UniProtKB/TrEMBL annotation:
Probably binds two magnesium or manganese ions per subunit. PROSITE patterns: AP_NUCLEASE_F1_4. PANTHER family: AP ENDONUCLEASE, DNA-(APURINIC OR APYRIMIDINIC SITE) ENDONUCLEASE. It comes from Campylobacter vicugnae. The record marks 147 as: Transition state stabilizer. Residues 4-243 form the Endonuclease/exonuclease/phosphatase domain. The keyword Ribosomal protein does not apply. This is Exodeoxyribonuclease III. The active site is at 105, 145 (proton donor/acceptor), 243 (proton acceptor). The gene is xth.
Length: 252
């Protein structure tokens, strides 16, 4: 099964650029989109012609902001956020078999101390929630824009960004805690020492052409799924957003 995550930074803009055509020939079974910036009645009709049978979304109350959408070729039970107040449309939770699959647009902490505090509270509640689910016998997959690069290998200029939200010690320590709790960063599990592997680039300073980026988009899986993981990859050739898609191949 091929699962993809992509922060599209505006669903309608990507559709207008024909930015989803690659999906038709890539064998995708599931794609989780973040930052769709659209409500139900604003979803372009082209989205419903991509071959996905099960499409759900969670839009922000604020217009033109945040929001997540999931599209799948298999059935699942879907819910919005169960662990945090979610007026910003950040979470979709899907259950099928003994799997709980999350599509999440994690908060950005760069807009000030209040937003960093909000981000860390969201982080903590989410980790507590998935640990409880996993302890109950369910296997976890979560994907999305986590808005934090974990290690120095995960961004081009770590020293210059050591005091920037997205690479603060407190944010990086949360990812340490995720891993200590038994969840696996699939890309690093498959590509342990791969350098210059990024999923987001600033629109400024020609950053993408120079590959001055950050790896802030992830697939994590619970350790019970480790032997089912076949590949993890970054599709940095796919354009249309300031992020590129990331994905995994896994036997489910």
């Amino acid at each position: 099964m091929r699962l993809i995550s992509w922060n599209v930074n505006g669903l309608r803009a990507v559709v207008n650029k024909n930015g989803f055509e690659w999906l038709r020939d890539f064998g995708v079974d599931y794609i989780g989109l973040q930052e769709i910036k659209a409500k139900d009645d604003q979803i372009p009709k082209e989205i419903y012609n991509l071959g996905f049978d099960n499409i759900v979304l969670n839009s922000a109350q604020k217009a033109g902001y945040s929001g997540v959408m999931s599209m799948a070729k298999f059935g699942y039970e879907s819910n919005k956020c169960r662990f945090f107040e979610d007026s910003e449309g950040r979470v979709l939770e899907h259950r099928f078999g003994n799997i709980v699959l999350f599509n999440i647009y994690f908060p950005n902490g760069q807009q000030g101390d209040d937003r960093l505090e909000y981000k860390m509270a969201f982080y903590d509640k989410f980790l507590e929630y998935i640990k409880e689910l996993n302890a109950s016998g369910l296997e976890i997959i979560f994907c999305g824009d986590v808005n934090t690069a974990h290690r120095e290998i995960d961004l081009k200029n770590p020293k210059a960004n050591s005091k920037t939200s997205g690479f603060l010690p407190v944010e990086r320590a949360w990812i340490d805690r995720v891993i200590e709790a038994g969840f696996i960063d699939t890309f690093r599990y498959i590509n342990a020492d791969k350098i210059d592997a990024y999923s987001w680039w600033s629109y400024r300073f020609n950053a993408r052409a120079k590959n001055v980026g950050w790896r802030i988009d992830y697939f994590f899986i619970s350790k019970g799924l480790k032997d089912k993981l076949k590949d993890a990859f970054i599709l940095n050739e796919i354009e249309g957003s300031d992020h590129c898609p990331v994905g995994i191949d896994i036997d489910l």
